Amino acid sequence: MPSRIAMISTYPPTQCGIATFARSMSNAMKNFGQHVDLIRISGNDPVKAAHPAAKNHFGADGLLENMDTLNGYDAVIIQHEFGIYGGPDGDEVLDILSNINVPVVSIVHTVVTAPTNGQRRVMQGLLDRSDASVALSHSAADAIRKNYVVDASRLKVIPHGSPDYGQFSRPIGFHLRPRILTWGLLSEGKGIEWGITALALLQDVDPLPDYYIVGQTHPKVVARDGFAYREKLEKLAIDLNVRERVHFIDAYLDTEALNRVINSADFYLIPYDNDVQVTSGVLVEAIAAGGPVIATRFPHAIELLGDGTGALVDQKDPDSIASAIRLMTKNAAARARMRELTARKGPSFHWSQIGISMNSLSHSLTRKQSQFAVLGGLRAPELLREPA
Fold first, then answer.
1. How far apart are CA 274 and CA 271, in angstroms?
2. What's the maximum distance between 2 C-alpha atoms anywhere in the chain?
3. Which of 112, 181, 245, 371 has its CA 20 to 30 Å from the CA of residue 381?
4. What per-residue confidence (pLDDT) applies to 368?
5. Alpha helix ranges (H) inside 34-85
6. Which pTM was predicted?
7. Is residue 21 within 8 Å of residue 160, measured between CB atoms?
8. pLDDT digits (tens, 9 = 90+) for 112-161
9. Which of 32, 10, 35 is nearest to 23 (CA)?
10. Contact predicate 329/174, CB 8 Å
């Protein structure tokens, strides 16, 4: 009989990367026979349409009231991002962890490398109270080891997953007018302005590529700043006389629609300003889609593209981006080489592979739990750890 797993996370219809990730991961695990129930953290987001969540909670209080139910599972997976949980720096997650008596796997989505005292307390508590912590890249695992205290045997690397784009037909050659694509929730720091500025530096490229910017403004940004960033980008495109070639798709696309958009592009641009970002789901999806990929030099991009799989460019440097776009449009051999390398790497990121890895990890913990006595009604974490 398969074990029963509870996954605590945001979940659609909440519009955020963690919610989409949780849906994809849980579905991948279920496809291999694993029982997974979603315990949805809604925050202030009202429950809208029906969805496959076993429970819905607006914060830690509701979860704490239902710990008997949660502890009835064989293991719990916690998706962690500081913005999901309430309290200072999301410290409500520590209250939840303190009351879970079955094995816990934490999925670490953000590793803060220069944390405040509060962030350090929460992240260290998460690592200490988890029987296994999953980093979504080797860069993320390195950052955790460097900045926090963690038992090496309990830190696992399972990559961020991606759809299998092999089911879609993507031509090898370019469109008559090449299409560049950047996607994801829009917010400051995504570096879109540098991509637009780079486009204006490509007057020697004929025809000038189309640049598609797909994604709505992040809901938290809208609440704080409205649509100021999007309006700034649109004005920049007008001022640089490239507005006809810059296309904004202001929508939160469902998986099928986004897959079609991704497969319609000739290459992908990830111009992030953040030089410490250790995990990027968009980067993984761009590789799984077959590239070629242009990305700024953040750690995850260096890890995945640094061997020539893609083109690395400098942060906030439109000249560097323009040079890479020029290479992509004019050098067919370079494009072919990058697509060959992405084709080799892409399958390892498919959600089917991630589902196998997550099921294997959760099964290893539940097997250990069954092998040892439960002391005083509580699990004994020291018995669940791998030997040093």
1. 9
2. 74
3. 112
4. 74
5. 60-64, 67-70
6. 0.89
7. yes
8. 999 999 999 999 999 999 999 999 999 999 999 999 999 999 999 999 99
9. 10
10. yes
> To which residue do tokens 């050659």 refer?
173
Predicted local confidence at residue 80, as pLDDT: 97
Residue 55 has a pLDDT of 60
Closest CA to 386 of 127, 107, 153: 153
Give the phi and the psi of residue 218 in degrees, each rounded to 5.
-55, 130
Q: How far is CA 371 from CA 31, 129, 172, in A?
A: 27, 20, 53
For the chain, list the domains and their CATH numbers. 4-161+350-384 (3.40.50.2000), 165-348 (3.40.50.2000)
* Cβ neighbours of residue 318 closer than 8 Å, sequence gap 6 or more: 194, 195, 197, 198, 200, 201
Q: Rounded distance, CA 359 to CA 300, Å? A: 25
Taking each helix axis from N to C terminus, what angle separates 332-345 and 318-330, rounded to the nearest 10 degrees? 100
Contact 40, 10 (CB under 8 A): yes
Exposed (0-12), middle (13-18) or buried (19+): which is 78, by Cβ within 10 Å? buried
What's the confidence (pLDDT) of residue 256?
Answer: 85
Residue 128, classed as helix, strand or coil, is helix
Distance CA(71)–CA(223), nearest Å, equals 36
Half-sphere exposure of 14 (CA within 13 A, CB side): 26
Q: What is the pLDDT of residues 175-214, one digit of tens each?
A: 778 999 999 999 999 999 999 999 999 989 999 999 999 9
Asked if 261 and 253 touch (Cβ cutoff 8 Å), the reply is: yes
Q: Which residue has the tokens 């944390």?
A: 115
Q: Could you tell me where the DSSP H helices lie in the chain?
A: 17-30, 60-64, 67-70, 92-98, 117-129, 138-147, 192-200, 219-225, 228-239, 255-264, 281-288, 299-305, 318-330, 332-345, 351-371, 381-384
CA 122/CA 116 separation, integer angstroms? 10
**Phi, psi at residue 160, to the nearest 5°?**
-60, 135
Higher pLDDT, 153 or 170: 153
Residues 199 and 190: their CA atoms lie apart, in Å, by 16
More confidently predicted of 262 and 167: 262
